[in-house]
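During the reporting period, our protein records have gained a structure token line. One record among many is quoted in full directly below:
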Amino acid sequence: MRHELVPGSRSRYYMTGPDGERPHGVWDVVAVDEPRSFQVADAFADEQWQPDEEIGWGRMDFLLEPVDGGTRLRVVSTYRSVEQLQQLLDMGMEEGLKQAMGQIDGILAEDAAAV
């Protein structure tokens, strides 16, 4: 899915797990400081893209900084409580993020080839 990183916009996405499951989520774009950073409110969602208010929202700060030969991406996630964080960890969030981040190089290569 494509994301329009404009404050006030909403991006919808899903991730496909190794067993074919597709957890859905939404990002509400809070702030953009192009090309240095952007911030989103993040929530799991149902298949109709309605946020799961029971689990609640988190915040993700994406920070980009130039380094020799490329760009470093740092992602800082913030949650409303330790209990919310633990619930998300129990749901496999850490593994999902590792898998998603592991795909970035391939996605960037596809985008570069399309230009």
